């Protein structure tokens, strides 16, 4: 049974570094997460699909980021052996990793009747299979530390399904099962693992949806609007905070009441 001081042992201040890894950092939700992490003085390891100095420079300029607060990590999430080795190298370079937020994800929508095997594999590989290669080295590090926070981004469509998204819904539902099982394994070492499941959120990808379709979507949401990326990021920040020390294996839905499980 843990001693009465176990909460103190879980605070980031007890670690040599206050480091967070964010996959999909350049996406709308990932960027919002990075902004909030910076306010809490984290050093951020941000993954991107390939080394692209111009994209990094523009992203930092657009968001007012100081690049020195980041370590930019090119990693192809669909190349599992490469991703696994890349993450192991990162873990070896740092004395400690406090938080991992898996926010990377793609879509390749089609009715299942028309869906190709390539579409299925692309989404499953990037959204679900990559959880092993990204999380395994970090989780092992956290076991050694006896502290850590893992947050995985799922989706409302991983909870309820969605027409034309059998691949995406399967991957996002798999993330929830993965996280629940990981929470069991991490609990004894004071590692929490939780899920944030956003509903429709204002991001560059969603904002390309035609207005007449978006209006119909909003009518299905009791609050009659989309989420802001900051609201999703706030849920992630709660789950890595000291206040969430006793929350693990949970799925926090942020969808304006569109789906209540």
Number of helices: 9
User: Would you give the CATH topology?
Assistant: Rossmann fold
What proportion of the residues is helical, as a percent range? 40-55%
| Count of beta strands | 9
Number of domains: 1
Give the overall silhouette: globular
Q: What order do the strands of the largest sheet run in, or round the barrel if closed? A: 3-2-1-4-5-6-9
What is the annotated CATH architecture? 3-Layer(aba) Sandwich
Major sheet summary line: 7 strands, parallel
Category by helix and strand content: alpha/beta
Q: Let me know the CATH homologous superfamily.
A: NAD(P)-binding Rossmann-like Domain
Order of helices and strands: HEHEHEHEHEHHEEHEHE
Alpha-carbon Rg, integer:
18 Å
CATH class: Alpha Beta
In terms of DSSP E residues, the strand content is 15-25%
Estimate the mean pLDDT confidence. Answer: 92
Oligomerization status of the protein chains: single chain
Give me a quick take on this structure.
The protein has 261 residues and is of the alpha/beta class.
Which keywords apply here?
disordered N terminus, Rossmann fold, alpha/beta, 44% helix, 9 strands, 261 residues, seven-stranded parallel β-sheet, two-stranded parallel ribbon
Please describe what this structure looks like.
With 261 residues, the chain is of the alpha/beta class. The chain has one domain (13-253): NAD(P)-binding Rossmann-like Domain (Rossmann fold). The protein contains 9 helices and 9 strands. It has helices at 6-9, 28-39, 53-63, 80-93, 117-145, 156-160, 166-186, 211-219, 229-239; strands spanning 19-23, 43-48, 70-74, 99-102, 148-153, 191-198, 201-202, 227-228, 251-254. The protein has a 7-stranded parallel sheet, sandwiched between helices. A two-stranded parallel ribbon has the order 7-8. Helix 4 runs parallel beside helix 5. The longest helix has 29 residues, at 117-145. It is globular, with a radius of gyration of 18 Å. The two termini are 33 Å apart. Mean pLDDT is 92; it is low at 1-14.
């Amino acid at each position: 049974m843990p001693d009465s001081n176990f909460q103190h042992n879980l605070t980031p201040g007890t670690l040599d570094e206050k480091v967070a890894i964010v996959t999909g950092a350049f996406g709308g939700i990932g960027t919002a997460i990075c902004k909030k992490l910076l306010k809490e003085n984290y050093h951020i390891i941000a993954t991107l699909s390939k080394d692209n100095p111009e994209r990094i420079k523009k992203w930092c300029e657009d968001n007012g980021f100081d690049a020195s607060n980041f370590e930019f990590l090119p990693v192809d999430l669909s190349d599992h052996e490469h991703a696994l080795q890349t993450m192991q190298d990162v873990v070896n370079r740092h004395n400690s990793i406090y938080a991992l937020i898996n926010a990377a994800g793609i879509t390749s929508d089609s009715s299942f009747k028309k869906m190709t095997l390539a579409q299925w594999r692309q989404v499953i590989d990037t959204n679900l299979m990559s959880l092993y290669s990204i999380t395994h080295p970090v989780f092992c590090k956290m076991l050694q530390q006896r502290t850590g926070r893992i947050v995985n981004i799922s989706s409302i469509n991983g909870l309820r399904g969605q027409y034309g998204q059998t691949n995406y819904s399967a991957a996002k539902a798999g993330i929830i099962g993965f996280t629940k099982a990981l929470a069991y394994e991490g609990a004894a070492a004071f590692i929490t693992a939780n899920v944030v499941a956003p509903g429709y959120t204002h991001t560059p990808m969603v904002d390309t949806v035609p207005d007449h379709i978006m209006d119909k979507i909003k009518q299905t949401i009791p609050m009659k609007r989309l989420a802001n990326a900051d609201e999703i990021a706030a849920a992630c920040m709660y789950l890595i905070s000291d206040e969430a020390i006793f929350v693990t294996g949970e799925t926090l839905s942020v969808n304006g009441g569109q789906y209540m499980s």
